[in-house]
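Question (not urgent): is this output format expected?
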Amino acid sequence: MAVSDNRPFFLNLVKIRLPVTGFVSIFHRISGLLLFLAIPFSVYLFDLSLQGEAGFNSAIDVLNNPLIKIACVVLLWSVLHHFIAGIRFLLTDFDIGLEKKQATQFAWVVFIVEAILFIWLGLEIFL
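Got this back:
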């Protein structure tokens, strides 16, 4: 006798409504990946800047490129989100904020603090 399989054949990810804690988790992974992928470029710029005054000026010229500035803004978001969400995940390792209501509140705190710091640091650095 065949057992009926009620699982869906196609999972439409657009229709799934993730809770805010799910978005924090996904963005934490994305920000970690972006930070990892930025390591070679960061090491290159650091090496270039240590090659004397001409190398430092070359590194400044690279950083003044509009596409690199956009990448730096994305990396600023990555650092901020990864750090703040990482603190939230460390708190959950100590059994703090595990209930659904607390977890949702902490997730919103992550996004609010991240947005405030992003705007403040973005204005300080890029203006």
